[in-house]
Write a structure and sequence with these properties.
This protein is an alpha+beta fold. The protein folds into 3 domains: 111 residues, OB fold (Dihydrolipoamide Acetyltransferase, E2P), CATH 2.40.50; 44 residues, Dihydrolipoamide Transferase, CATH 4.10.320.10; 204 residues, Chloramphenicol acetyltransferase-like domain (Chloramphenicol Acetyltransferase), CATH 3.30.559. It has 9 helices and 19 strands. The strands form 5 sheets. Strands 9, 12, 15, 16, 17, 18 and 19 form a 7-stranded mixed β-sheet that branches. A 4-stranded antiparallel β-sheet has the order 1-8-6-3, with no helix packed on it. Strand 10 and strand 11 form a beta hairpin. The longest helix is centred in the middle third of the chain and has 18 residues.
């Protein structure tokens, strides 16, 4: 008895997906719920599990194919067992069928060797283009997953290890009679030989990010205002309660929960910052769904803290930790990435001192956090050293005036420099 493996029902906001990599080949044994293939959408990578146990009899679609909900991906021979050394059935070029001649030619092709570690889609493309054996690449991801960065670093290490060709002595350095006129400078020839280039197609996520960023720049009147925050009070509060907090809630007390709470207080005072434009209308959201930008190997994604005003500091820290882990593992859901009303991004974790973040359309504003740096500041006429951070608010000037943007940042600053305000809501 055979069972078809089909593309799962895609979310309503996703029209199609791209088949990026098969984890099994025809003739392999599969167990129920084992991941067979990865499908990449504009936002997340979806795993397609085996509906039954048996042998993968036939693969209908190859890597790189665009698929839609319900489309047949493969056929499993239910209850069968793989025969060692047996030739694998043919892989069809498309779901629409192929001629007998095409099937024969595919069947005669030798099976590709299975990679030593699990490769991300981008890593697989770079490895194939540069003829790199995945078994020789050390994966840094979860469960030894090989990322694009791992492959690029592997290539760089090979290049640096190769012996450089000996340089011929420069004519200007050769012994001889003194020249009457200064010799014309001739730049030395490159010792690197042919300089390689790589052309790698954008992943669907990267293409979607590019589209959204360009759309935001083209359709919104973006402006950025800045301020700086003294984080001494937050540091003292974290230092005083961090051990007790972690013991009680099982999660560390970080900075993001303070910033999320401070932004909620500011959003309550300035609802335009929490609004969005829909045609000729302004939609004022009476709830606070705060997106938190998370960096992954595939690109930047923004999971959403629903009703952030109702979450405790521990709830926020737990949610952010859970989002980050599942985002990097590729198991976060599309529903968790949609519907935010405001976004916070932290470039400071990478060392950024100052930047102008881009609004996550259709939202109207985004807060940028940056590196905490000890700097001399004047307080009560005295020069003191304090842990300072620049904060930036990029906003859509069509509906948010400069006065509101500046006062929003001042409110965030006040809440962080005097955290009691977030408890008293003043």
């Amino acid at each position: 008895m055979t069972t078809e493996v089909r593309v799962p029902q895609l979310p309503e906001s996703v029209a199609d997906a791209t088949l990026v990599s098969w984890h099994k080949k025809p003739g392999d044994s599969v167990v129920r719920d084992e991941n067979l293939v990865d499908l990449e959408t504009d936002k997340v990578v979806l795993e397609v599990p085996a509906p039954v146990a048996g042998v993968l009899k036939e693969i209908k679609l190859t890597d790189g194919t665009t698929v839609t909900s319900g489309q047949v991906l493969a056929v499993i021979e239910e209850g069968a067992a793989a025969i060692p050394g047996a030739s694998a059935p043919a892989i069809l070029a498309s779901s629409s069928g192929a001629t007998a001649e095409a099937k024969d030619s595919v069947a005669k092709e030798p099976a590709k060797p299975e990679s030593g570690g699990k490769l991300s889609p981008a890593a697989k493309r770079v490895a194939e283009e540069n003829k790199v054996d995945p078994k020789t690449v050390q994966g840094s991801g979860r469960d030894g997953r090989v990322s694009k960065t791992d492959v690029v670093n592997h290539l760089s290490a090979k290049e640096s290890a190769a012996p450089a060709p000996a340089m011929a002595p420069s004519p200007a350095m050769a012994p001889g009679p003194a020249a009457k006129a200064p010799a014309q400078f001739v730049p030395p020839a490159s010792t690197r030989g042919a300089r390689a280039e790589q052309r790698v197609p954008m992943t669907r996520l990267r293409a979607r990010i590019a589209e959204r960023m360009v759309q935001a720049q083209a359709t919104q009147a973006l402006l950025t205002s800045f301020n700086e925050v003294d984080l001494k009070a937050v540091n003292e509060l974290r230092g005083r309660y961090k051990d007790q907090f972690e013991k009680q809630y099982g999660v560390k007390l970080g900075f993001m929960s303070f910033f999320a709470k401070a932004c909620v207080e500011a959003l309550k005072k300035f609802p335009a910052v929490n609004a969005s434009v829909d045609g000729n209308d302004i939609v004022y959201h009476e709830y606070f769904d705060v997106g938190v930008a998370v960096s992954t190997d595939r690109g930047l994604i923004v999971p959403v803290l629903r009703d952030a005003d109702q979450l405790s500091f521990a709830d926020i820290e737990k949610s952010i930790g859970n989002f980050a882990a599942r985002a990097r593992a590729g198991t976060i859901t599309i529903e968790e990435l949609t519907g935010g009303t405001f976004t916070i991004t932290n470039g400071g974790v990478f060392g950024s001192l100052l930047s102008t973040p881009i609004v996550n359309s259709p939202q109207s504003a985004i807060l940028g956090m940056h590196k905490i740096q000890d700097r001399p500041v004047v307080i009560d006429g005295q020069i003191v050293v304090r842990p300072m951070m620049y904060i930036a608010l990029t906003y859509d000037h069509r509906i948010i005036d400069g006065r509101e943007a500046v006062q929003f940042l001042v409110t965030v600053k006040q809440c962080l420099e005097d955290p009691a305000r977030m408890v008293l809501h003043v």
